[in-house]
Amino acid sequence: MTALRDGAARLIRREDYCPPAYWIDTVDLTFDLDPAKTRVLNRMRVRRNPDQPRQPLRLDGEDLTLARVLVNGAGTSFRIDGAQLVLENLPEGDEPFELEIFTTCAPEKNTQLMGLYVSQGTFYTQCEAEGFRRITYFLDRPDVMATYSVTLRADKARYPVLLSNGNLVEAGDLEGGRHYARWVDPHRKPCYLFALVAGNLVCRSQPIRSRSGTDHLLQIYVRAADLDKTEHAMHSLMAAIAWDETRFGLPLDLERFMIVATSDFNMGAMENKGLNIFNTKYILAHPATATDTDFANVESVVAHEYFHNWTGNRVTCRDWFQLSLKEGLTVFRDQEFSMDMAGSPSARAVKRIEDVRVLRTAQFPEDAGPMAHPVRPDQYAEINNFYTVTVYEKGAEVVRMMQTLVGREGFTRGLKLYFERHDGQAVTCDDLVQAIADANPDSPLARLQPQFMRWYAQAGTPRVQISGQHDPATRTYTLSLHQSCPPTPGQPHKEPFVIPVAAALFDHEGRLLPGSERLIVLHEPHTEVVFPDVDSPPIASLLRGFSAPVILEHPLSDDELLVLLAHDTDPFNRWEAGQQLLLRRALAAVRAEGPVHAPLDAATLQALRAVLRHPTLDAAFKELALTLPAHTYIAEQLDEVDPQRIHAVREAMRTQLAHALHEDWIWAYEAHQDSGGYRPDAAAAGRRALTGMALHMLCLAARDSGNPVWPGKTYQRFKDATNMTDRYQALSALVSAGHELAERALALFHERFRHEELVLDKWFALQAGAPDRGGDILPRVQALLQHPDFHLRNPNRARSLIGTYCHANPAAFHRADGAGYAFWRDRVLEIDAFNPQVAARLARALDRWKKLAEPYRSQAHAALRVVAAHEPLSTDVREVVSRALAD
After folding, report:
1. What pTM was computed for the model?
2. Which of 64, 299, 672, 735 is 20 to 30 A off residue 873, Cα-Cα?
3. Helix and strand numbers, DSSP H then E, in the chain
4. One domain, residues 400 and 424
5. Which residues are catalytic?
6. Residue 755: CB partners within 8 Å, gap ≥ 6?
7. What share of the chain in percent tops pLDDT 70?
8. Contact, 796 vs 119, CB < 8 A?
9. What region holds the Peptidase M1 alanyl aminopeptidase C-terminal domain (predicted)?
10. Taking every pair of C-alpha atoms in the chain, what is the biggest distance, in angstroms?
11. Per-chain mean pLDDT for the chain
12. Is residue 424 assigned to a domain?
């Protein structure tokens, strides 16, 4: 991590990329592990890059104490230049030479959780993006790939488990109660994929035999008390291995594959070759302590990190600007995996809808704000700030468009060619697209490849304007499509994108017109498409399956949207029709003058009732269809945002749904009970999601009527629940409705789960994210900061309370008195002093301050200016607030 403290940040530009002046072929590391003073002996085989001018060898280092430097076994001169070790008197020839560096570091003082650190008595590492330089001096860049052998030595009683990448080749005892383990990774890798773990852990092991007939050992290491929560993660890993070999022909390439979980981790997980290190949040799952969402996230993230074994490890990034090469591609792969695991078409659609909701509520605002950047950024001051929804989620949509343009089989063929060409190399996004195009020479992608690369080069969310004209004389329907993209910082003008638009036509009775389904590839600013044999004006269903990450401006009437909501054969667009109806009602109420009254009309309510009562729709789909558009999504449709007005409108809509559909909610709750044992499959999870929504609505209606029946039933369900999903939904329903039973339930919940760290995170988050009534949430959050179970230095706990309040509770955060912004200001500065990564993510809560109405805008601006003026300030936070304040 490059956390400069002098107020200046060196800007790194993609156009300045230059291959390294030296290559490192082999690395032999020996660690004598001690929390206060760990000794690291680094022996490297180094050679000059013959394609670069002769120059000194400059190695990156941070917070290291240098003790010795040897070249070919002899002492040599060196100098320290800032954060680099500079060696000038190197052998003259081009033959490889041996470089030995001996350093020490203090893992127990490493609060940044980057490099080598200690958490609860166990050693862990996190090296992506630039953490390896906190372990030893090195060429800390992803295009320097070497083979590693690692020897770990430590006290055997305190650290009985010693792990690193690759295969265990030797282990034994040493004098003085110490022991050692030697690991060798047969695959070349960049240093960001290095990992070690040493501690007192237990292991769940599972031998497997792959489809190709090779045997492997899978292991998950956790603390002893958590072993019973690792079964689902192991099943997810086995499913991911089988899926990747079946879908893409990519086998596990190591004798063993290991996962270790820790609660002190800045990221969700890390794909270190053969030794994945995970945040416990994405490994531990038990019905008593984890919700359906937790189970689904474990499956997805375990798969994601395993898939990196090929898309990220075997083929890695040339430089950090190419981050989406591995992340966008691997997110796409884990999305495809999760859809396949879901099974039914309806369940697959639910996964797709959930992914698009993330894109619209997080990535679209990023594309429209000060941190807007292309999927492949052009420059950065701190690379950790660019682990963003644009790089990950939008990057995945770009990969999905490639599959759409070449077909599923064509994409598999292209990925095979990609590995044939680049296995063991550090490459670019261009190389991926080139391989997919070359494997499908007759596809639209191959024909439009240079233009398609604009998805990697241009920031912003394209807009596609739609109009249609029916000609009864010729029985044709002409669809006109026009694309544009608004300016973003540094990119005032945008060239046309390649936008695949999946389309179909319906008549006004909801029947799909034969032969109307097609893929329109929009690549000009404007195009027209003619549909033949259309007898009457049709209803166009466009962007089916969300075939491109764009904003569609399609002026369908309410009646036409109601037809699609009732009949569209594409589940995504069926959901989308309902969302557009709800969005229209919300925006009309937000823009209206005076008090907020019932925003929903009778036709919309009846359509939603029909969805809820539909005999064949999946329960999870129904829950999504009746979920209101997010506060953030509504705000993005407005030129000026009054957060309290949006909150009032959404609350009025929720209340109206609760009362108007009261009998339907009772039916939904009773008809979707799961009487059998807990199963985390999509169908059972969908039924629980719908019953949870019904409870929320019934408690909300009871709040207004004063009827104690449903709050009482909800409290009883909370106490009697046999799984965390049902228990947490009942608790959430009481808290959301503001019922007096909520405080009693919160106290019982804490008492029962006070020793379960991940469950306590839910307890903190639920209170921080509760509906704000008269400004009561901020005082509660401030009080919870003093709670004995709150630990600011634990990233999960900080995110659960502070992150939820600032990022996920806009009505409570955007207070008219500015107190929410003052709270944000103080916490950003407090956390930045010890963990700049977590602080920078919190800092982004005010990315969109310029859209706020007064008095919010001025108060947010003042808070940002205070943070920007503070000294010292990390590069991480400085880059975020500087971009937010820029004109």
Report:
1. 0.97
2. 64
3. 32, 31
4. yes
5. 305
6. none
7. 99
8. no
9. 558-886
10. 95
11. 97
12. yes
